[in-house]
Amino acid sequence: MKIAIISITTQGKNISDKIYEQLIKDPTILHIQQYHKNVKQAIKETFNTYDCIIAIMASGIIIRSIAPYVNSKLTDPAVLLIDDNANYTISLLSGHMGGANNLTHKISQLIGSTSVITTSTDVNQKQGIDEIARKYYFNLENPENIKYINRALVDNRKPTLQIPTKYTYLIDDELKDSYEIKQDNTNDTLIATIDNHSVILTPQNLVMGIGARRDIAQSKVEHAINTACQILEIPPQRIDEFATVDIKQNEEGIIKTVENLGKQIQIVPRDTIETYKNEQCSKSDFVMKQFGIKGVCEPTSLIINGENSELIFKKTAYDGVTIAVSKK
Amino acid sequence: MKIAIISITTQGKNISDKIYEQLIKDPTILHIQQYHKNVKQAIKETFNTYDCIIAIMASGIIIRSIAPYVNSKLTDPAVLLIDDNANYTISLLSGHMGGANNLTHKISQLIGSTSVITTSTDVNQKQGIDEIARKYYFNLENPENIKYINRALVDNRKPTLQIPTKYTYLIDDELKDSYEIKQDNTNDTLIATIDNHSVILTPQNLVMGIGARRDIAQSKVEHAINTACQILEIPPQRIDEFATVDIKQNEEGIIKTVENLGKQIQIVPRDTIETYKNEQCSKSDFVMKQFGIKGVCEPTSLIINGENSELIFKKTAYDGVTIAVSKK
């Protein structure tokens, strides 16, 4: 996720700095850029290329600035608004698909503000179908029908939700409170239906790349995978494939852990990584020195996930294990 | 003030009804209209003709709906946002000149929500120069300089504020905390200055029309004037002129009260009212029966204030006295 933080006043800049210092450490934030003073220019530069804009200013300024660019809830970035005293963090635009509501809670925790969320489903403690799609990395096949599902939820009606058995782990009390759940073993998609209107959710492919020190303990690999998934707010079962480099293909700690999750580990030849070029990948001098490649977890994740895949979790080290996750 | 309330869900409609029932009794609200479901159409109909839009829905919906229409903080209506559970009332657009911040507090009190204000001056407990203009009915001569004054306030600098002695009553602790105040007897305008940038505030003309039962007690007239001014959030001295009909020109209760305020009472001939046509005026069957005219307080206020004046306080009866106020 790419985030832009825009401030105007000196107080606002201090809040911007505080958020920057915290988010730069967050593995799910791949790029973060601070802007100060020229709001119109900052919006012009970021609205269509960033995933989230955090505006620290009066609501009128940010609304007037984004007005020429707003297009669709499926493509617009998340826009968050924070007042100059950090009293409130308000989810302004793209609450569900853009993840603004979720980010609002995250930022509020960082700066000690109150989260202000206005989407009806959230206000009524229901799981909007677009929020489920965002949270668990599904594509929405027919977004024009979202409104039927979400309005039914707000009116305390229960749409049916057909869930493939492989995604049984999605079912929790909140989901059961929102939907009439039907388990299903015939296909790979989630289908929400009310009054003959359906929304179909098809899974994005998630690949976790794993690098590790020699003779890594299984418990350390497990810990690393679980921690990364916790930060991504998904269960480890949601990861579709795992990947590592051929040098690590006999590491018992990695092999066993992936096996225990009932998943496959894909092996990428070192040669492939050597010639692989992708701007998303960071460089490790240590790995370069040892193995002549830039890294393991990021390139293997992206190579296995194929063209147009993008990192959602940048390389992060946990006690001898490095983890990266991409989606496509 | 003309207000439109727009809701989408059943819960939202209930909140809309609650606000409607309260505001319809408010003398400063001259027209109020409820809209349900079709937000785009409601915005199209009201954005350029209403003073305030209260949207009960998700922020994304109202922001996407107003985006094509937003133009300038000096002319756009106040836009307020309330979530479906009435947890928060958020001042979204035209916080100062449009009065959105002030209305946000008012609506929050009516429905028991939390007010969310994001304008830097308010957040920092300073009186923005545009907020002073709105509150006390001044026109802003050079709005392009507002930013210099308000940014200085936010940076804890004190702009000078030149106040004519006739407006001494504006000076309170909050104003003194925001500005370096200079009293002045040479002109009729307020002038705020910082770093050679000035904002000039010229007063709108406020005329209060008064009707009353025969032999009305002075205390009752005083009570009526004070109550109306309290609701308008201005001191009685801010009223520039008073008006009544010739039939009442010898009513001691009215004459003495206006004299005590150091103001003039303007007398309007009954004939003038008889032939006066203005859609803003309500009709009183009682007055029509007794004197052959539609009313006293509204037409006399508008006639004395002249062409293009508009009511800011509709006819309201207080124990034998009727009050209306217009601005121009």
UniProtKB/TrEMBL annotation, chains A, B:
Pfam families: CbiG_C (PF01890), CbiG_N (PF11760). Signal peptide: none annotated. GO terms for biological process: cobalamin biosynthetic process. Residues 42-122 form the Cobalamin synthesis G N-terminal domain. InterPro entries: CbiG_hydrolase (IPR052553), CbiG_N (IPR021744), CobE/GbiG_C (IPR002750), CobE/GbiG_C_sf (IPR036518), GbiG_N_sf (IPR038029). Residues 206-325 form the CobE/GbiG C-terminal domain. This is Cobalamin biosynthesis protein CbiG. It comes from Methanosphaera cuniculi.
